[in-house]
Amino acid sequence: MTYEIAALYKFARLPQFQELRAPLQALCERHGIKGSLLIAHEGINGTIAGKASALRAALAEIETVTGIGEIEVKFSFSPDMPFLRMKVKPKAEIVTIGDASVDPLEKVGIYVEPEDWNDLISDPEVLVIDTRNSFEVAVGSFKGAIDPETTSFGEFPAYVRSQLDPAKHKKIAMFCTGGIRCEKASSFMLNEGFEEVYHLKGGILKYLERVEPEDSLWEGGCFVFDSRVAVGHGLAISDFETCHGCRRPLRAEEIGAPGHEEGVSCPSCVGSLSETQKASARERHRQMKLALARGTTHLGPQR
């Protein structure tokens, strides 16, 4: 069986977002959908998966229940269900930048279609910035892009204020996984006085879907926050796995290297884990293998 995956978001006024948690949870469970949805006063964001017909029906209901109309969705596929459960979470922001003055509904940068992105970032006057976190950048990025070396998106404003100058950096081009972080990043930078701010419409996922490998300036894989770990051109699953100990994506050469233990640790984190943590991880991994042999799924503790 093939599962369809929908990465979605929309900025919209949702003052009643707290009241939407229960009906959104119920409709997703009714359609057999798993994944996560974040809802806030500023809109909705998330990634969900299910059988194609059920997923499309759920998306239509989500648009109706929230009352925000058509939602930006990017579709991909997986041979396995990439999520363990369905979670709907009310949050202060659907993507956290930590600055209440940032509002993509008031101002936002210039959208650039994937087919036009190569020309823009090939311009020597354009500063190209990857707005994702450093562990995502390590999996893959656009050739020549700057890594702000952030561990969370909330650190992006400090990076901009300390490293960039509106008087010097006249043209900025930004990108992220699906486009949502750049909506806020571009809005923030416009507030900071940067005048010419561009961002990749639909994000890396839409670029990998629509731009052929032979024409691409993308290098490596694109990290995704589910069991696929990373995807490449055509949104095909890339050869990565996730370390259970630190959640880092692991390249093929790191799998089986000294310090790597399936379900427990990797070369980067093995030295920082206690024996108690390792023992707990080994038991969890054992339970998961037993569940797989029985044809069931070990969910672990509910959080």
TrEMBL record:
Q: What does this protein do?
A: Catalyzes oxygen-dependent 5-hydroxyuridine (ho5U) modification at position 34 in tRNAs.
Q: Could you tell me which PROSITE patterns the record lists for this protein?
A: RHODANESE_3
What's the Enzyme Commission number for this chain?
Answer: 1.14.-.-
Q: Which residues form the Rhodanese domain?
A: 122-216
Q: Catalytic activity annotated for this protein?
A: uridine(34) in tRNA + AH2 + O2 = 5-hydroxyuridine(34) in tRNA + A + H2O
Q: Which UniProt keywords apply?
A: Oxidoreductase, tRNA processing
Stored SUPFAM superfamilies:
Rhodanese/Cell cycle control phosphatase
**Species name:** Lacibacterium aquatile
Q: Which CDD domains match?
A: RHOD_YceA (cd01518)
Which Pfam families would you find in this protein's record?
A: Rhodanese (PF00581), UPF0176_N (PF17773)
Similarity field: Belongs to the TrhO family.
Name of the protein in question: tRNA uridine(34) hydroxylase
Superkingdom field:
Bacteria
EC class (word): oxidoreductase
Claim: tRNA processing is one of the keywords in the record? yes
